[in-house]
Amino acid sequence: MGQRRHQLGGIDDVTISNGRLSARILSFGASLADLRLAGVEWPLVLGFKSPEAYIKHGLYFGAVIGRYANRIANARTQIKGETVILDQNDGPHHLHGGRASLARRRWKLHERRDSAVVFKISSPDGEGGYPGKLWASAIYSIVEQTTLRLDLVAECDRPSPVNLCHHPYFNLAGGGSISEHSVIIRSDHVLPSDDELIPTGELLPTVDTQYDLRSKCRMAELWKKRPFFNNTYCRPQTGHGLWNAARLECGSIAMDVATDQPGIHFYDGYKVATTVSGHGGCMYGSRQGLCLEGQNWPDSPNRPDFPEAILLPGEVYRRRVEYRFSRLSKIIQ
């Protein structure tokens, strides 16, 4: 139990624990590098032992994404009548904050306790094309015995698009294919996208479609309906605060994802291919980890009918995601 810290190559490597759940977080990208549940011998997320590996592979493993997670079409938007031109790093589009993404930056270790750690970062005016300076914090904490909570906070000094999100790849079996994982996403609507993964603007009801994940379904069965998943599911209109957005099960382990974000993005990891060995010395490949990312809707800055995505000076951006672990065979004691 407790907090452990060491530094290698200018990257802080911190482990927080309450004896039942432990999380290893790096200052590079404020990345969740390892997550362990007491009584389980394997990691629950994909990751690397060496902090330097996170610099090399560039796949956002466990990172905090920003300034804007997911895509902004044609890498541009309008703010109060002025055109904002962003970094093009996904064909003609802007993805995950561009080449200067917060996921690719060293955050500053600000505070640490036994079961919590705080990282902070600032992004200068114009970085990645974004107007204004941004200040952001990532607060990891272990709460309620087996829940990992992440609070994301930001402020800016000019109107600017902000959409921070967490990007861990989960594999509750510790490695190998995720085909035997079962997923539930508690959403009635999904955002279809075009061939370049830009939302079409339609809010598609999921009922009786290949996107319907309201009932538990194995990944192996889902892939028979659809070759891959890389879509944002919309929060139901009712309720406030955290919503129980998704559930993942494999073997005797279950994880519920709760967030206050407007959507949850489901990515099945079909494009993953690492050149650096991960936990246990294995190379990660396609469909060996999946993401359930609480976030705003993609391309919201260009769509007035989508949730608000512009943060104004004087406002405080606050978002939360919780990963709640349990055992299917018995309640964790």
Automatic annotation (TrEMBL):
Disulfide bond in keyword set: no
Pfam families reported in the protein's UniProt record: Aldose_epim
Any one of the GO BP annotations: glucose metabolic process
EC nos: 5.1.3.3
Binding site for beta-D-galactose: 70-71, 167-169
Gene Ontology terms for molecular function: aldose 1-epimerase activity; carbohydrate binding
Active-site residues, as the UniProt record annotates them: 167, 293
EC primary class: isomerase
Keyword Isomerase listed: yes
UniProtKB keywords: Carbohydrate metabolism, Isomerase
Coiled coil: none
Pathway: Carbohydrate metabolism; hexose metabolism
Top-level taxon in the UniProt lineage: Bacteria
Catalysis: reaction(s): alpha-D-glucose = beta-D-glucose
Family designation: Belongs to the aldose epimerase family.
Name this protein carries in UniProt: Aldose 1-epimerase
